[in-house]
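Subject: Undecaprenyl-diphosphatase structure
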Amino acid sequence: MSFIEAIILGLVQGLTEFLPISSSAHIRIVGEFLPSAEDPGATFTAITQIGTELAVLVYFWSKIVRVVKQWALSLAGRVPRNDPDARMGWLVILGTIPIGVLGFAFQDVIRDVFRNLWLVAVVLIVFGIILGVADRYGRRTREMEDITYPHGLGMGVAQALALIPGVSRSGATTTAARALGYSRTAAAEFAFLLAVPAVFGSGLYELLHAIREPEPNPAYGLGETAVATVVAFIVGWVVIAYLMRYLKTGSFLPFVIYRVALGAVLMVLLATGVLQAY
C-alpha cells in the first residue's frame, strides 16, 4: 500500500511543482487523505523534488548546457563577463544564495513549524492574491536578457519564501518577476532555472541525511521515495511543456482562483476537525 501512496504523491509532486500552487502544500494536504493519513514529511518532499528538477534539466538541456559552458569560459576570461549566458549563470548563483542560507539556518523550523496546515492555508490565500495583483498590474516589457543583478537577487529572496509550504517556489519567483515587469514566459523560465541548484542541493542534502541518520518511523522508506521521484520526473516534464505553451497567451488567474479556493476549503476542514494542523 505504501508504494501505491508513493505513486500518488509522485503524481501530485509532478503536477504541482511548476504550477504556482505549491507542490509542498499539496504533498502535505494529500498525505492526510491517504490510508496512512500522515504527513509525508519534509525529507520525502525535498527528495521527490529532485525528480521534477531532472525534468527541468531535460526540457531546458541545451540552454542549461550553454549557460554553464559560457559561465565557465567567463571565469577563464575566454568570453566577456557580460556575455548573456555567462550573466545568466551568475544570476542563478546570486539568486540561489538566499534560499541556501535560510534553508540551512531554519531547517528545524521547516521540518516542524512550517508544516502547520493553518499556516499553509493562510499562505495559499495571501500569496495567491499577491500573485494575482502582480500578474494583473505588472508591466510586460522585460525579457530574460533584461534581468539585472538586483532583480536576480530580489527574485532569489522571493524564492526563499517557498521554504514555507503553500508559498510555491515557482509562484514566489514568478510573482516577483511579474512585479518587476517581466513577461510571463520570462518569469516562468527564470523561476525554473533558478530552482535547479536550490532543489538539487536541498534534495541531495535530505537524501544523505536520510541515509546517514534514518528516521525511526518514516512515513515512506527510500524505496517508496525513489518510486515517487521517478513518477514526479515523468509527470513534471509534461507539465513544463504544457505551462510554457499556456503562458504565451494565458494568465495566472486560474491558479490564483484555485489557490484561494483551496486555502478556504482547507480552513473549513481544519475548523470542523476533519483535519488536524499537525
